[in-house]
Amino acid sequence: MKEISNLMNFRPQIKVVDATLRDGGLVNDFYFSDKFVQDLYLANLRAGVDYMEFGYKASREMFDESQFGKWKFCKDEDIRAIVGDNNTDLKIAVMADVGRCDYKKDIIDRADSPIDLIRVATYINTIPAAIDMIEDAHAKGYETTCNIMALSNAREQDLEVALHLLGQSSVDTIYIVDSYGSFYPEQIARTAHTFLEICGQYGKEVGIHAHNNQQLAFANTIEVVGDGVNFLDATYNGMGRGCGNCMMELLLGFLKNPKYNIYPVIQFIEKHMTKLKEEGVIWGYDFPYMLTGILNQHPRSAIQFMKNGRTDYTEFYKELLDRD
Amino acid sequence: MKEISNLMNFRPQIKVVDATLRDGGLVNDFYFSDKFVQDLYLANLRAGVDYMEFGYKASREMFDESQFGKWKFCKDEDIRAIVGDNNTDLKIAVMADVGRCDYKKDIIDRADSPIDLIRVATYINTIPAAIDMIEDAHAKGYETTCNIMALSNAREQDLEVALHLLGQSSVDTIYIVDSYGSFYPEQIARTAHTFLEICGQYGKEVGIHAHNNQQLAFANTIEVVGDGVNFLDATYNGMGRGCGNCMMELLLGFLKNPKYNIYPVIQFIEKHMTKLKEEGVIWGYDFPYMLTGILNQHPRSAIQFMKNGRTDYTEFYKELLDRD
Hints:
The structure is a homodimer.
Chain A: H1 5-8, E1 15-18, H2 20-28, H3 34-47, E2 51-56, H4 76-83, E3 91-97, H5 103-106, E4 117-122, H6 127-139, E5 143-148, H7 156-167, E6 173-177, H8 185-201, E7 205-209, H9 217-225, E8 231-234, H10 248-254, H11 263-278, H12 287-294, H13 300-307, H14 313-321
Parallel strand pairs in A: 1-2, 1-8, 2-3, 3-4, 4-5, 5-6, 6-7, 7-8
Helix pairs in contact in A: 3-11, 7-8, 8-9, 12-13, 12-14
């Protein structure tokens, strides 16, 4: 059992990362209005959020700019149009996917960029490529994280090797990513234990990015907070791919550091998120996502099921079980 | 950290209680079609559910029968019309509220009734009245539980006294009820610890009934399962007052006892719950319930807010903060 002081008091090392534009962008192809992004930036500032992730630095050679909103590409000038010189305590982050980012060209020196943090997203089998990106970003002056996706499908032996490799790199923070929303709290606690033990040897911080397939995104996040995980991803109203993420409003309702303030989050949700849902943008816990979560599968089949307007859950379940 | 064997193996003492008609009835004034109730009974049978709660034994002197569906009153003949002699492993439960049940008259001998279990619901300050009902039901041959509601507002000193009083009664199982959906997993684990310690001295089982205000109903349920709580309430699709309860589908997806089967649950949800939602019956996690949960308040103001079609969350939040 964790210490009760963790619930009544707070750990100043905890950092809250708003991933609404990035993970939420996967829902609406990154088509957010400028007003939405400006207001989100202001809400994060007033809420005491530590990092705001604007989107991806996706390769413009691989992806057609006319098919996506600008936050899939996060050009420095687009970020600057929102944040100016960002003379604030809120740091700016973007995500760079292994194999889908022209990082040598598209990520310039931090001194010339509004971005503070490069988050490198990778699967367990592409850690060397991730480290190459991390070292590139580090050399350019950025803070870095490495977000290891789909961890519920990774073997623990591989994970330990990966964590030692990353421990020897320049990365600052290593993330547990439960891409499939498949972990139960006891399991994520064990995973966090492995992370904290190895990362601790190298002086690295640990983060968590959860998905809500089994309504456990918030529960899993606060489970590992109690164990020493300090970087916490959340999104407003949980907006994110499929069933979405840990909700910012739940997280700030839980954290006791007086620097955090839930009121601007409530304001933003009232003004923007309700409208987004009315416009037909769909995310959040629903039955098909639960099934892929329980079965530890990528949610793409559930997303397709929802898009097709299907409600034949029994047929869908049988399709999911047929995995030979 | 709990033992990994709890996740891979199972504890045969665990009992799953379907509370859909009872807590769900609070959403639609207990107006379920006979077909719904029949199919739910069959689904529970096939899913391996241990108890099915049909509703309340509410006083017909206090409540007008014309204002509610029949499951608010759970006459024995109405239950029998669904279950016949119920020669099955699925036991039948009803809830009896302290102060709102004419138990001496309305609860007849078990030998003449289809009911197996009387669940006595009480607040912490009416334990003696609850015990009077428990002893009455026990003398008539029933299994009994005592469900202590609104525990997040009870002082631990009072709780310990209450548990010792109940320990000395004939009750079989004592329930942790998180009426306001306000407990975090660490807190519910501590509460469960107190329950298990005192109830263990008297040979009583412990149960949990959770609400989903902070999307923690399932998480809190499986948190305490790991500690030895054996009676687990759940409802199909989480149907229950306000934000609802621990979802049956999530719970059966988690439990490893091969006697449980999620498929009939999926079938029932596909056939009935989707339709219920389309007909305009509203329950499940939503923002206003989260706010009452965080603030440890009764959800009635959130339910009213939703009924009035309000979306001014900031005003609502300020109303909730004004509690002098």
